[in-house]
Amino acid sequence: MIKDGQWTLVDYDHGSGRSVWGYFDGAKQHYRVDYPVEATIASNTAVRNAAQKAWTGDYHLIASVPLNILHDENTGLMKAHTEGDDKFVSRWLNSSDNRAWRTKEGRV
User: Fold this and answer.
1) Same-domain check for residues 57 and 93
2) pLDDT digit string (tens) for 66-83?
3) Contact 35, 16 (CB under 8 A)
4) DSSP string, 8-33
5) Measured between alpha carbons, how far is 104 from 79 in angstroms, rounded to an integer?
6) Listed residue (27, 7, 10) closest to 19, CA to CA
7) Residues sharing a CB contact under 8 Å with residue 2, sequence separation 6 or more, in sequence order
8) Which residue segment(s) compose the domain that 30 sits in?
C-alpha cells in the first residue's frame, strides 16, 4: 500500500503518470487525481522561446493545455470554448496566471 499522508494510492497510469488517491474520512470517500505537468510546462517554454515574435502567417500554436485543466469546471475554459465565448478563452490565455500553457508570446 502506498500512502501520501492520509491518502492511499488507488490507481496509477504508467503511460500518463496520472495517479488517483483516496481516503475515507469516516463518513465519505474522497478522491484526488494528480497529473504530472512538468514536461508540458518545459515543452511549452521551449516552444515559446523558439517561436517567432511576429504574428504573420495563417497558423500559430498559441497554447498547450493539459486536458484535466481544460475540463476543470473551476477554469470554465471548456464551457467557454463549447459556447463559443472567444473573449473568455482569450482572457484566460492572456492571463499571466496561465502563462505556463502558452507556446507563443503576445496577446490572443
Assistant:
1) yes
2) 988 999 889 999 999 999
3) yes
4) EEEEE-TTT--EEEEEE-SS-EEEEE
5) 23
6) 10
7) 8, 9
8) 3-34
Phi, psi (rounded to 5 degrees) for 62:
-105, -20
Q: Would you state the cell numbers that stand for residue 31, as one nine-digit string?
A: 478522491
Residue 71 lies in a domain: yes
Residue 22 CB burial class (10 angstroms; 0-12, 13-18, ≥19): middle
The answer to whether residue 106 is domain-embedded is: no
pLDDT band at 21 (very low <50, low <70, confident <90, very high): very high
Would you say residue 107 lies in a domain? no
* The three three-digit cell numbers of residue 75, written as one number: 477554469
* Closest listed residue to residue 91, CA positions, set 81, 82, 27: 81
Q: At 33, phi and psi to the nearest 5?
A: -115, 125
Residues 97 and 46 in one domain: yes
Judge whether 75 lies within some domain.
Answer: yes
Record the pTM: 0.73
